[in-house]
Design goal:
The structure is a homodimer of 233-residue chains.
Chain A: E1 6-10, E2 15-21, E3 27-31, H1 38-47, E4 51-56, H2 68-75, E5 78-82, E6 92-94, E7 99-102, E8 106-112, E9 121-125, E10 128-132, E11 135-136, E12 139-140, H3 150-161, E13 169-172, E14 182-183, H4 184-190, H5 199-207, H6 217-225
Parallel strand pairs in A: 3-4, 4-5, 5-6, 10-13
Antiparallel strand pairs in A: 1-2, 2-3, 7-8, 8-9, 9-10, 11-12, 13-14
Helix pairs in contact in A: 3-5
The structure holds fe (ii) ion (FE2) (2 copies).
Pfam families (chains A, B): Lactamase_B (PF00753)
GO molecular function (chains A, B): hydrolase activity; metal ion binding; sulfur dioxygenase activity
InterPro entries (chains A, B): Metallo-B-lactamas (IPR001279), Mito_Persulfide_Diox (IPR051682), POD-like_MBL-fold (IPR044528), RibonucZ/Hydroxyglut_hydro (IPR036866)
Chain lengths: 233, 233
């Protein structure tokens, strides 16, 4: 099964946005859209002649602002977000095991994969997993803010994501090297941070990273918890 | 039918490279790979556990050097190129109407679409058309070098590409605005250069562009005519 999403990129924050198209070519879902690209993304929906059913977020991002609220407003789509992220204006609050349906029989399964943030989820659709900042290609998201936890991330990746079939395609929330896609099988065997490492080894590796505070975090997180809309809107 | 390719991007030249995956998830074809990314692209083939059947070129590029020769060398794939581009070391020289087969029953149809260069082709696969620099999203390639011709490009787009079904997805050779994909239907109605324009109007529009000579053309074209390999190799 090689139904791939449409992958869009934001150069400034190296963020991927995904459009998942139903097999009937009529209905779509967008994952992690970026505020400054809402018109670009809307143009893609128009060009492909799609109706947007849902805007999904993998977590409350710290490095960029979402266009979820804006896209919801202009398309009439519903916003569906992880329940543990404090994104209160979204009409659908998702928990582990929930299923989002769109188009004629498309199913997206929600996997709660905490660690990068406590509320982070991954989305599973037709042999593709959208991992947000939980699992990146040959890497993973940081775990030092927003109730992040290296122990939780380790359990999410090893226990949930690496339990998926080896051929599952991994579509990350970011990439900084021009990469597009990986597979669970490859990451299980080769991921520089997570393959063949104990939980304790992973914890010390993550603790030693000593990364600077993200520049936008104090603006982006509250904005994203309001779906990127101005507060009071 | 929404089988999409994997789309990879070169930030320096804004070039797209595409990996087409056979439905059996074993075999693949790569279109327009870029020299400096051959290891990145090879890593994608390994991660997806694919065997590369063919390296395809849409034309002899003027703005970047291909990795076709290098990928052929390391993977054992065959190089298949348009016959009118002077890419002599390629084992397969393609003409209009030719079909490239890979995997279990995948068919790529060759459309000769001259105009950006005299030899340029587009590739049609499962409702997707890979248009190289003939048709871009809301634009088209330039027609002022390498035996380019605005009249030929007009005929190629209007006569061949716009004759494809409206839902055909258009995957261009370049994009400069973060866009990924369009459709024939949308381009037919809205393309800023080609929709609702006569051949004469299009010719004067292209003649008026007055673009600078591409910086790399004197290096890139001869290099690409040798599949990106050093001459004498
Ligand atoms: Fe994040
Ligand atoms: Fe070109």
């Amino acid at each position: 099964m090689n139904t791939n999403p449409v992958q869009l990129f934001d150069v400034e924050s190296s963020t991927f946005t995904y459009i998942l198209v139903a097999d009937d070519d009529r209905s779509a879902v967008i994952i992690d859209p970026v505020e400054r690209h809402w018109e670009r993304d809307l143009a893609h929906l128009k060009r492909l002649d799609l109706t947007l059913a849902y805007v999904l977020e993998t977590h409350a991002h710290a490095d960029h602002v979402t266009s979820a609220g804006k896209l919801r407003e202009v398309t009439g789509a519903q916003a569906a977000v992880p329940s543990g992220c404090g994104i209160t204006p979204a009409e659908v609050q998702l928990d582990d095991g929930d299923v989002i349906c769109f188009g004629a029989g498309e199913r997206i399964e929600v996997l709660h994969t905490p660690g990068h943030t406590a509320g982070s989820v991954s989305y599973l659709w037709r042999g593709n997993v959208f991992t947000g900042d939980t699992l990146l290609i040959d890497g993973c998201g940081r775990t030092d803010f927003q109730s992040g936890s290296s122990a939780a991330l380790y359990d999410s990746v090893i226990g949930k994501l690496f339990a998926l079939p080896d051929t599952t395609r991994v579509w990350p929330g970011h990439d900084y090297k021009g990469q597009s896609v990986s597979t669970i099988g490859w990451e299980k065997r080769h991921n520089a941070r997570l393959a063949n490492r104990s939980k304790a080894q992973f914890a010390s590796l993550m603790a030693a990273l000593d990364l600077p505070k993200p520049k936008l975090i104090d603006i982006a997180v509250p904005a994203n918890q309001n779906l990127g809309l101005p507060h009071g809107a």
